[in-house]
Each structure stands twice: as C-alpha cells, then as structure tokens.
## 1
Amino acid sequence: MAADALFFGAHPDDIELTSGGLAARLASHGHRVVLVDLTRGEGASRGVPEQRAREAAEAARILGVAERVNLGLADCGLSRHDRSQLALIVTCVRTHRPALVVAPDRDDAHPDHVEAHHLVSRACYLAGLARYPASGERHRPARLMYALYRGAARAQLVVDVTGVWEKRQAAIAAHASQFDPAAGPATYLTDPLFAVELEARARIWGASIGAAFGEGYRMCGPVPVADARSLLARVAGNDR
C-alpha cells in the first residue's frame, strides 16, 4: 500500500528526536505514514538490536503511524558511495511510493546522519529513473524535506507540534535503552541537560511561528503557492 509520507532515520530513535511531531500530526489527520530506520542501532553504547526493535515498534504505536520498517544496514557503516545501500533505499522508495519524504539534514556531527542525508537524497531522485537497477516501478516523491537537529536559524519551514508534543515526548521515552539513565552507561543522551536542550530547541522554533513547540525543516526545491492569500497570514512577533 502506498504511503503518503515516508520518514527516514539512520538509527531507531532519530525520527522521534527530529520529526516525530510531524509524523504524528500527519497520522492524526488520517494520512498513511511509514517510518524507515536504516540501521538497527547496534553500534550504540547502550541497548541491543532486539531491544531497540521493540522500543521502535512501541514508539511507532505511540505516534500512530501505519508502519515501521528497518533496512538492516550497518550502524556506523552508512556510505553514500555504497551502491548496494543506495539500491536498497531506492527499492524502499519505489515500494512505498510516498508523496513526501522526510530525511535527516546534512549538518550533523554523527557521520551516519550525514551519510543518511546523502543516501536518501540520491535515492529519491534515482527512484524516478526507469533504468536505475533496483526493484520496483519508478517513482519520484513530489516533496523532499530535511529534518533539522540543531540550527534554529536555518529552518525554512517550521511545523507547529504543540498539539502532539506529549505524544512526541512519549515516543522518545519509549527508547528507554537510550534515554533511561538506569539502563546502562552514561552518555550525552542520558544527561539531564539533553532533555532541556530538546525542549529549548522546540520552544525556539515554536516561538518563531507563534506556537509553544515547533520542529524545523529545510526544503529541497521551491514550495508552490496555489493560494496567494496564504502569504498574508500573520506570524506572532512579526509586528514588533
């Protein structure tokens, strides 16, 4: 069955940390949303793949999405130059045939996040080429967006996630192996300041559009405006 939106993350908790609110909002409106984890997260300092798979499934249930799949690529081994990895993601895009793809942004410290950005970006284009050697009938998504992890000033689009904020937080907490301080050795994810940072970032993005919480995105290509009246909408704070 075709998906309306396909969300990609390098590891099982990446989507929740960057674009879980958008996924939840689209799902709440009745759209078919599919989450795709490129790796099983086996390279993390905490948790094992089987546990992380259970957590990912629970987080998907909380967000209300239709499906979550894992492509089983090597954690800490993602590479935009690996043709087999690229072909697998092309097949995934052709299988689900989404109108919208949400991918990791390129500006990130984790090499897997950077490589995932390039892999998904290339796959979205190559999936539309009839002769590209991957399974499935050609399909190119109409819209490609990049979910920001940091960099509030770089957001070209901000989604109001106030109404699904608690759901987003619960989906993140479902990944207990990564975020519960009692579940393993200390990491930056278990530092109390990490949760503060997440909320502060969402509040900054939210404040930029007059909302309590927001998620920031970069766009690939121009955004069409069919109704010019939408450009007249006021954003809180712009009249100061």
Note: The beta strands are 5-9, 33-39, 67-73, 100-104, 143-147, 157-160, 214-220.
## 2
Amino acid sequence: MYDVSMKTLSPSVIKVADEAFLVLADLHRTKPDATDFSIAEILQHADEMHLNGSKRPGVEIHIRQHCVANLPPNPGRYRMLFASGKARRRLLLPGDAIHPLRDGKIFPDIAELPAEYEGLVEWAKVRYGLERLQPAPFRSLLDLRGSGKTVWQDEHADQYVERLREDFA
C-alpha cells in the first residue's frame, strides 16, 4: 500500500515492467563499463535484488519481449529496454530504433515506486538522457528487413508482383 507520509510501497506493488527496468538500471549503475547484459545475467540480478520478495515469473518475459523497444509489441508496448543482440539487453538510449507500434513508457513513474528506488530512476534519466530520449523511427530501410515476409509467404515473389501489376491495368 502507498503511504504518503512514509513514501513507501509494499514490494508487491512494483509493476513487473518497472521491476525489469530497475534490475537492468541497477546492473548498469553497478557495472558502468558493461554496454549490455545477457538475459541470464539480468535474471540472476533480479533474483539477487529481491524487489518483490522473489523474482516473479513475468519479469523474464518483460525482459525478453514486453519492455524491448526495438521488438514488435507482443502485447506489451513499453520502450524501456533495447535488444542489443539475440539474448542481450541494455537500457534504451537516445537515437535507438524503436518499433513503430511501440508507444509505452520509457521510465517507471517514480510516484509508483518505493522511495529507495527514486535515486536509481533519476540516475538512469540523467545517464541515458531523458530530455533527449524521443521515439526514433527506424533509421534506414534496412531496419525494416523481414517485416513484410508474411505478405507473400504462400506465393512466389514474382507471382505476387505480377498479381499487383494486374490490379493496376
């Protein structure tokens, strides 16, 4: 429960997406020379931090998919993390490509967190440039590679193009 006088929350009210962010931000702060982390490292750190008593099952899927800005939403639309490799994550940086269907939050709302994590979120905002962090579209056509593969998956590409041309005749 939220207690205005004490500015504390019981651990169970930290949202799963916020937990994923806090774990990764803490890793970045404690290991400043690392540019990114494996999902296994992040999950191990989540176990060690005990943000909600123990790591909840939903934290892993948020780290793998729901909070990852450059992956298609499925269904989460958060933009907190960035997939720097198949199984590697880091916090989102200004200029990173964000999937066009992602429009969720980038940082946790400090008012929804226990007071002890305010400093970590503020550190991340300064370190990763909140004022410069705007949704960036894909930077080149190459970033869209593979996005239309389902359009003609059941027919040869030449037949697909022929069919499109017939519609214009």
Note: The chain has one domain: 11-139.
